[in-house]
Write a sequence for this structure.
């Protein structure tokens, strides 16, 4: 990436609570991103999505601000962080609707769907999940869904943060320090190492660049 280029990170908060734990995670990630010199924009999905995906063969596209969100904010972003609460062991309806509604913009043939698909591909994606449960398996369904979306769109899923809290802001009391982890994820969004090897992928024997081993003692 050009050193003079300021990458664009879009943070999408899928909770209906504007002062809740998902917002706290998103705000922490935005703070970390901005400290790292990243242009980070935080948006609340409730401001843009009011409807689910209809049967587009028999109904017009819903009259809300989703097209603005998807075309003007999501597509130009080089990185997108999804922040969702855990509802019934899945992402929130607002977050799920974001993915579902994208179908209306890339489905079909022609120059516009092709342009949209090209702009959807190659992003860096991340995830934060706030849940009442502390056990790791509670959020793995959400992690898997975003991971598969990343693979489908040839994107890099660079990391996720899971924090626990029920009352507004309670996530700050989680001893695993998810707010700090979210801040670090935001700061490292465009520099964090990502690897997903295939059988034919050329690679070195080392995952990390390491210093040479110390010289053997003389004597």
């Amino acid at each position: 990436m050009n050193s003079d280029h300021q990458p664009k990170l879009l943070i999408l908060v899928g909770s209906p609570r504007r002062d809740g734990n998902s917002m706290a995670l998103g705000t922490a990630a935005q703070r970390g991103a901005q400290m790292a010199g990243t242009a980070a924009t935080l948006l609340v999905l409730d401001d843009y999505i009011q409807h689910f995906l209809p049967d587009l063969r028999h109904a017009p596209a819903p009259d809300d601000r989703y097209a603005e969100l998807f075309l003007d904010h999501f597509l130009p972003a080089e990185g997108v962080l999804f922040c969702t609460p855990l509802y019934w062991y899945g992402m929130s309806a607002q977050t799920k609707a974001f993915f579902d509604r994208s179908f209306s913009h890339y489905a079909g043939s022609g120059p516009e769907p092709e342009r949209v698909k090209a702009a959807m591909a190659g992003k860096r994606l991340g995830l934060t999940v706030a849940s009442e449960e502390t056990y790791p398996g509670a959020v793995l369904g959400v992690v898997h869904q975003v991971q598969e979306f990343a693979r489908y769109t040839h994107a890099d899923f660079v990391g996720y943060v899971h924090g626990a809290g029920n009352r507004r802001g309670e996530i700050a009391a989680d001893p695993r320090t998810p707010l700090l982890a979210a801040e670090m994820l935001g700061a490292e969004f465009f520099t964090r190492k990502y690897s997903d090897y295939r059988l034919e992928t050329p690679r070195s024997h080392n995952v990390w660049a390491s210093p040479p081993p110390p010289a053997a003692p003389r004597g």
In short: The chain has one domain: 8-187.
